Amino acid sequence: SEMHGKTARKMWSHISGKSPIISITNGVHAPTWQAPDIARAYENEGDLWQAHMDQKKELINYVQEKTGAQMNPDALLVGFARRAAAYKRSDLIFRNTSVIGPVIEEGKLQLIFSGKAHPDDDLGKSIIKDLVKMDRQYKDRVVFLENYNMEIARKIVRGCDVWLNNPCRPLEASGTSGMKAALNGVLNLSVLDGWVGEGLKHRVCGWLLDEHIPEDLQEADEDERDLHALYQILLEEVIPTFYNKREKWVEMMKASIEMAQSKFTSDRMLKEYYERMYLKVFREKILATK
Q1: Is residue 143 within 8 Å of 61, Cβ to Cβ?
Q2: Pair 122, 113: CB distance under 8 Å
Q3: DSSP per residue over 33-59, as a string?
Q4: Is residue 195 within 8 Å of 163, Cβ to Cβ?
Q5: What percent of the chain has pLDDT over 90?
Q6: What three-state secondary structure class fits 187?
Q7: The pTM is what?
Q8: How far apart are CA 205 and CA 182, in angstroms?
Q9: 27 - beta bridge partners?
Q10: Cα dist. 289→223, 277, 283 in Å?
Q11: Helix %, strand %, coil % for the chain, to 5?
């Protein structure tokens, strides 16, 4: 991503004679990750909400088949599925259960998680263990899907309402799960890191935690600041919009799909690799031989 390009250049700034570092942001293969019904509804101005609900029900049926959990298709469903690494903070939302617990118990919020840790990453495995505890504590409203693979990933990025992304800045090199979700009209709730800085507009096609970090918390640690912003946006903006402003929600879904299709597909990525890297290197080699 562009942001990681800046991070990399800063990391290597003290090295003399280094090669130039550019950034070409990742993209995802739309035919693999975007549900055909979602694509058709978007392109033909069809019933995007119904297409989304079909995907959501498919995910919920899959969850019941695999875990026995009975999730509510009419309740907000937030997804988080990726490699279990400490910096990605998949358990951040549970850091203060006195705040988030009542919202889950009331049935206004459901969460679905999946992911794997590296075999040697004990901290990552500990995070998964904590997520499984939350699964058992909030039956039918928090689910952890085991044996994370492409099938599970595809169902989650198509079937959730919101995609949660809260890594520690600036450690996210790019991130692609949020791109896959955005292609399906799943709205990102994210920190400003990785690819997010190049496409996500607050309250237009998702929400940015960085827009809600008050000045009086600037001296607090990053976890505390982001948790405060996450709860504020979730409780004051995401949940009210989902339940009370369906027209606005669908408008944001359309903006999300437009953003993802125009900026974050592998077609765009390959074109940039050719034009900005390979063609440039080829021309330089030709000139060097003259």
Answers
A1: no
A2: no
A3: HS-HHHHHHHHTT--HHHHHHHHHHHH
A4: no
A5: 88
A6: strand
A7: 0.93
A8: 8
A9: none
A10: 54, 19, 10
A11: 60, 10, 30
> What does the pLDDT look like over 37-64, one tens digit per residue?
999 999 999 999 999 999 999 999 999 9
Name residue 239's amino acid. Answer: I
Q: In the structure encoding, which two tokens stand for residue 111, read together?
A: 């969460």
Round to whole Å and give the CA distance between 145 and 134.
Answer: 12
Alpha-carbon distance 44 to 68, whole Å? 36
How far is residue 70's CA from residue 72's CA, in Å, rounded to a whole number?
7
Position 38 scores a pLDDT of: 98
76 to 81, 141, 167, 223, 280: CA distances (angstroms) = 17, 10, 22, 24, 47
Under 8 Å between Cβ of 242 and 173:
no
* Cβ atoms of 4 and 194 closer than 8 Å: yes
- The yes-or-no verdict on residue 100 having pLDDT over 70 is yes
Q: How far apart are CA 186 and CA 80, in angstroms?
A: 12
Residue 39, Cβ density class (10 Å: 0-12 exposed, 13-18 middle, ≥19 buried)? middle
Listed in sequence order, the residues at least 6 apart from 137 whose beta carbon sits closer than 8 Å to its beta carbon are: none
Q: What is the pLDDT of residues 102-121, one digit of tens each?
A: 999 999 999 999 999 999 99
CA dihedral 136, 227, 97, 59 (to 10 degrees): -30
Residue 265's DSSP bridge partners are: 28
Report residue 215: phi and psi, to 5°. -60, -30
11 vs 207: CA distance, rounded Å: 29
> What are 240-271's pLDDT values in tens digits?
999 999 999 999 999 999 999 999 999 999 99
